[in-house]
Design a protein that fits this description.
This protein is an all-beta fold. Helices cover 0% and strands 56% of the residues. Strands 2, 4, 5, 6, 9, 10 and 11 form a 7-stranded mixed β-sheet that branches. A 4-stranded antiparallel β-sheet has the order 1-3-8-7, with no helix packed on it. Strand 7 and strand 8 form a beta hairpin. It is globular, with a radius of gyration of 13 Å. The N and C termini lie far apart (40 Å).
Amino acid sequence: EVQLVESGGGLVQPGGSLRLSCAASGFAFGTNWMHWVRQAPGKGLEWVISIYTHDGRSNFVDSVGGRFTISRDNTKNTMYLQMNALKSEDTALYYCAREVVTGHFDYWGQGTQVTVSS
């Protein structure tokens, strides 16, 4: 059974940092694109950043460039999202998701809440 479990969310002040984790199980972790997707209060889903777990290639939305870094540890089947210089507009429920074929995310975690507020 495929499972994705996020952790690491919390309340942080503007300018602060958080590191999210996504622990994966039930599939060969080093063979997929993995993504972080967020949903701000009252808004739709927004793709944030992704990584190809095989070789570490990554892509990100412009609004997080220079602030967010994605990484993975294939020995631990875990993906990470290091978020620095957080802004109030980064407040959202953050999900990790697996891409099975291009553009199709077949498994999602339950989400971890990130709140940026003073």
